[in-house]
Write a structure and sequence with these properties.
single chain; 338 residues; alpha+beta; Creatine Kinase, Chain A, domain 2; 2 domains; eight-stranded antiparallel β-sheet; two-stranded antiparallel ribbon; 10 strands; 16% strand; globular
């Protein structure tokens, strides 16, 4: 079965993926920062039992974080299945992951549950539909903490209300090159929208990939929050596309793009940082018609498969840094047309 990150969707030239995430807490337990280890383990079992009672359960696998190696945990982050926060303290934490990796349920991160749905390209409708479905299934078996005035109760006040975070993963090389991102970020924060690095809060953008998300969920309905984000995304999309056309008129940029695909196809050693820099240029070249024989699907899949921890899992054995670089180069040669 293809994973969500092995596909490409609407507006894939700029919008790599769509995410909808719900934060939920069980009424009968304190928030996670006050839980004992035993309580954490009880919550993991209760959520798994609730999920197992639903017809969709057969598609999920259970990952107890404490039973995974560090490499396995980091790979979950690289594949955008869990947050860096979840793996930072694995005891009494778990993730339930759907077979195509489009749905993951994090247990005992900042909240008892984080229900997350990822979709390729620009597809809030499908992501919200699936997230609502999982939320409803679990709500039938679990008692979520809810207040008639404040909505769903969460550990961080910014998640009160719907408890929803909607986000888009965007490739913004032209706006990054022009130095506009800092100004854009400052303007968006005043509108309750955040633009962050590749892996969310406190992370840096890698390969010009950013996350755009709503910051507030109290006082807004789910659809209203998504519509607001869509409006901002439409403006960013237009600005990025306009900036790209101008940027790619530059012969030096065209040369960088051509060299980048050449290196990816022929290199014998590729570090993760070099790969991300080169693949950013290739993404730009594909979207602007400068590279015609490489698909966005191939680039999306490679971007995940060659990350440091994920590539080690693929090999099935420990690898040194130079061995990872060699395997990364090999996968690029095999995954891109000659």
């Amino acid at each position: 079965m293809l994973k969500w990150y092995e596909k490409a969707g609407t507006e894939d030239g700029v919008i790599i993926s769509t995410r909808v995430r719900f934060a939920r807490n069980l009424r009968e337990y304190p928030f996670p920062d006050r839980l004992t280890l035993r309580q954490r383990e009880e919550i993991v079992e209760k959520v798994w039992d609730a999920l197992s009672a639903s017809p969709i359960a057969q598609g999920f696998s259970r990952k107890n974080l404490s039973e995974l190696s560090e490499i396995e945990r980091v790979s979950l982050v690289e594949r955008h299945l869990v947050s860096p926060e979840l793996i930072s303290s694995p005891e009494g934490r778990a993730a339930f992951i759907y077979e195509d990796e489009s749905i993951s349920i994090m247990v005992n991160e900042e909240d008892h549950l984080r229900i997350q749905v990822m979709q390729e390209g620009y597809n809030f409708e499908k992501a919200l539909e699936l997230a609502d479905q999982i939320d409803s299934l679990l709500n039938e078996k679990l008692s979520f903490a809810f207040d008639s005035d404040l909505g769903y109760l969460t550990q961080c006040p910014t998640n009160l209300g719907t408890g929803m975070r909607a986000s888009l993963m965007l490739h913004l090389p032209a706006l990054q090159e022009s130095g506009s991102i800092t100004r854009i970020s400052a303007s968006l924060s005043r509108l309750g929208i955040a633009i962050r690095g590749t892996y969310g809060e406190a992370s840096r953008p890698v390969g010009a990939i950013y996350q755009l998300s709503n910051q507030l969920s109290l006082g807004l309905g789910e659809q209203e929050a998504i519509d607001n984000l869509k409006d901002i995304a439409a403006q960013l999309l237009e600005r990025e596309k306009t900036a790209r056309k101008k940027l790619c008129e530059n012969l030096t940029v065209q040369d960088q793009i051509a060299r980048s695909i050449g290196i990816l196809k022929s290199a014998r050693l590729l570090s993760a940082d070099e790969f991300m820099r080169l693949v950013s240029n290739v993404r730009l070249g594909i979207s602007e018609g400068l590279i015609r024989n490489v698909s966005p699907e191939a680039i999306n899949a490679l971007t995940i498969h060659v990350q440091p921890a994920t590539i080690q899992l693929r090999s099935g054995k420990p690898l040194s840094a130079s061995e990872r670089d060699a395997l990364r180069a090999q996968l690029c040669c095999e995954g891109l047309p000659g």
